[in-house]
Design a protein that fits this description.
heterodimer; A: about 130 residues; mainly beta; 1 helix; 8 strands; about 15% helix; B: about 500 residues; mainly alpha; two-stranded antiparallel ribbon; about 55% helix
Chain lengths: ~130, ~500
């Protein structure tokens, strides 16, 4: 019985070891050359409609896309998501504009479905 | 703290007045009843939750770092909490029944027999209260809701804690003395419409074996009673069914149901909350009016509910910044500690101490302020549960469907294929504007229940000046309900930082 118990604890320790903080990993950046920059017309952004510009560049310069979409979610899980379709402000500029409506105050994260690993933190959206 | 140990069953035990009238019995419902009476039913319910917990742990450490896309944070902080309070409201403590933390320890106890009894000095709710406050504090300080990795650590710690405690100590020591979720469920289940209770008290009077509380071992050929396998556990939380009152300390494990040789225990319908007004001695608990540890637990449950909701609206940041300016502190944890001390120590001391002082003046009795608080504290359980219900139901009802895209995404990242389709990120749940009336309804029900229980307690405490004894507690209840109502109607503002935010 003692051996069985020891074996049981050994398995438990191995399992515990496999789940240690060292195993924490961030999602791999599949597009390391792509840079994303965000500007809001209102700083800090407020609850309600905000005008924003997203600039996309890679090592060749401005990045042209036929269609760019952005999704947003609060850092708290389970909250209603938001999204917007962006349009390029000028041909070949790599700058895309949209109006996006934050539904609640707090911390938000924006992300582009085309580059899901590029998370954009929008800290402290304030009440109107 | 005045702890009362388990009451030993007496052969001449007189059944306590049951709050569960003869009527609906879930164990007599076709199919469901047969399943629950089956001795493996609990394990069948625990297994999927254990597997789900493993998935959550793996996703916590290896899945997306963004909390809304991670199953650990989403299921822990939105679905689990929401479903717990709704199941407590409409059923009973079925989440403790299906508790996945107990399954590894149940399996391990096939090989390892715990040696010690839980230390006598800790046989109260003290350890659980500290852990309850600790989890509430960590939730705010470390922003657990936004951190899959920290949530994963919490889940693993929970499994490890339950496993370690119950392999070292006999009976259900973890559930009774340590588990903060269990204490939450015990208090919430006082408002449940179902209770594990004796069907016919007269049958228990003639019972000599008391299997509902005693562990019984099968004695086969060549085996002694002590070395043989456990045939039935009896209640490991020391609740002697004929003297059990209500759902406090009951995990709905149904060990008593399986143990009773007379098939005299059911899951019976009863008036929710009625047990809170009862003064009689409770098996395994004693006199609630003398259990300061239970009163402190109730204070944490009630005032913690308001604090937890208050922490997700803008004024909390203004308060924290004001404390930072005044004290010169620029580290969050002592400031948050100050807010917690205000909400969980100073505020209850002033409000409940004041109400007890006024009650003693209105209805002069020999009782001390502490004794009066112990008598009336449990009247706040319905209001506290109403606040938790409103808060957790908001997150669950407005975000229930977000589990679909998160699962789709998890399957895609695990397999590289859209087996469940492309993630439908636009899914959420009910609009917040629709959920708000429900939240206010839950809050109103909680206040109504608190006033009702408070009145019943005041009637017994001061049969002559009932209204004067009741009025201070009613005032505190209305004040708390108004605070909670104001909090719930404020725009939500969840931030990970406040000093820089």
């Amino acid at each position: 019985m003692v051996l069985r118990s020891a074996a049981y604890f050994r398995v438990l320790l191995l399992l515990g070891g496999a789940l240690t903080p060292g195993c924490h990993r961030k999602s791999a950046d599949l597009h390391p050359d792509v840079q994303v920059a965000v500007e809001f017309a209102t700083h800090p952004p407020v609850v309600g409609v905000n005008h924003m510009i997203i600039a996309l560049t890679d090592e060749k310069g401005a990045l042209q896309l036929k269609r760019l979409e952005v999704h947003g979610t609060m850092t708290h899980p389970g909250m209603a998501p938001i999204s917007a379709v962006l349009t390029e402000t000028a041909p070949d500029s790599g700058r895309y504009a949209a109006s996006i409506g934050f539904t609640m105050a707090g911390d938000w994260v924006l992300w582009l479905p085309d580059y899901p690993e590029k998370k954009i933190d929008v800290r402290g959206v304030t009440p109107k | 703290m005045n702890a009362t140990g388990p009451q030993a069953p007496k052969s001449s035990a007189r059944p306590a007045a049951s709050v569960a009238p003869a009527g609906f019995d879930l164990l007599k419902v076709p199919v469901v009843g047969a399943f629950l009476r089956w001795r493996w039913s609990r394990m069948i319910l625990q297994t999927p939750l254990l597997l789900l917990s493993v998935v959550m742990i793996v996703h916590a450490f290896f899945g997306p770092s963004l909390a809304p896309q991670n199953l650990a944070t989403l299921l822990s902080w939105v679905h689990f909490r929401g479903l717990v309070v709704l199941v407590l409201l409409f059923g009973g403590n079925f989440f403790c029944m299906a508790c996945p933390f107990m399954l590894p320890r149940q399996l391990a106890r096939r090989w390892v027999t715990p040696r010690w009894n839980w230390p006598r000095r800790l046989r109260n709710k003290g350890p659980a209260i500290l852990l309850f406050v600790g989890v509430l504090f960590l939730y705010e300080w470390l922003d657990l809701w936004a951190d899959p990795w920290a949530t994963g650590i919490l889940i693993v710690s929970y499994f490890a804690g339950a496993f370690a405690v119950d392999l070292l100590f006999r009976r259900a020591s973890f559930c009774k003395f340590v588990c903060p979720i269990g204490q939450f469920n015990f208090l919430g289940s006082t408002l449940s419409p179902l209770e594990v209770a004796v069907r016919q008290p007269d049958v228990c009077v003639g019972c000599r074996t008391k299997d509902c509380i005693r562990e019984r071992r099968a004695t086969g050929d060549g085996e002694t009673a002590s070395s043989s396998a456990v045939a039935s556990h009896g209640c490991e939380l020391d609740l002697f069914l004929p003297r059990k009152v209500g759902n406090l300390d009951c995990t709905f494990c149904l060990d008593c149901v399986h143990a009773c040789p007379h098939d005299n225990i059911g899951i019976l319908a009863r008036p929710p909350g009625e047990e809170l007004a009862l003064d009689e001695l409770r098996s395994g608990i004693g006199d609630l009016g003398r259990r300061s540890d239970w009163s402190i637990l109730i204070v944490v449950f009630v005032f913690g509910a308001v604090l937890n909701a208050f922490a997700m609206i803008s004024p909390v940041y203004a308060l924290e910044r004001a404390i930072a300016r005044t004290t010169g502190l620029n580290v969050e944890w002592p400031i948050l500690g100050f807010v917690f001390a205000l909400a969980l120590i100073v505020e209850p001391a002033v409000l409940l101490g004041g109400a007890a002082w006024l009650t003693r003046r209105a209805a002069p009795q020999a009782a001390s302020l502490g004794e009066i608080i112990n008598r009336f504290a449990r009247s706040f359980v319905p209001l506290g549960f109403g606040v938790w219900l409103a808060h957790y139901a908001f997150h669950f009802l407005t975000g229930a469907l977000t589990v679909i895209p998160v699962t789709q995404h998890a399957v895609y990242t695990a397999t590289g294929q859209n087996l469940l389709g492309m993630p439908l990120w636009q899914l959420a749940g009910m609009p917040a504007s629709v959920v708000l009336p429900l939240e206010l309804g839950f809050l109103g029900l909680g206040l109504f229940g608190t006033l009702l229980v408070g009145w019943r307690i005041a009637e017994k405490f001061a049969p002559v000046n009932t209204m004067r004894a009741f009025a201070p507690w009613a005032l505190v209840s209305v004040l708390l309900a108004a605070t909670a109502c104001w909090t719930l109607t404020q725009p939500m503002d969840m931030r990970g930082t406040f000093l820089g935010g």
